[in-house]
Design goal:
Helix content: 55-70%
Number of strands: 0
Number of helices: 5
Radius of gyration: 31 Å
Length: 88
């Protein structure tokens, strides 16, 4: 199937160009932002979901606040008993 000297292609490109020019600038910007949000991360694109899931797991583990080793939490103590303030 041969195009008639590219006439159909020119018609298609012209229609796309006219549609692009007719859309408002703000809508074009919003479309670009939406397209970037839909784009998958490069790690997933190149290596699949397994390494990406490991990365997400590692970030969640790293971001959790862990108590320091050797320091016991002051559970159930009042402010006075922690600082030695009291009658005595």
């Amino acid at each position: 199937m041969k195009m008639k000297d590219g006439a159909e292609y020119v018609k298609y490109v012209t229609a796309r160009l006219v549609r692009y020019i007719d859309t408002p600038t703000e809508q074009r910007r919003q479309n670009r932002i939406d397209a970037k949000k839909r784009k998958e991360p490069w790690l997933v694109k190149w290596f699949g979901w397994a390494p990406y899931s490991i990365l997400l797991w590692y970030r969640s583990v790293k971001s959790k606040v862990r108590p320091r080793a050797g320091v016991k939490p002051d559970l159930g103590k009042t402010e006075e008993s922690n600082h030695g303030g009291g009658t005595g």
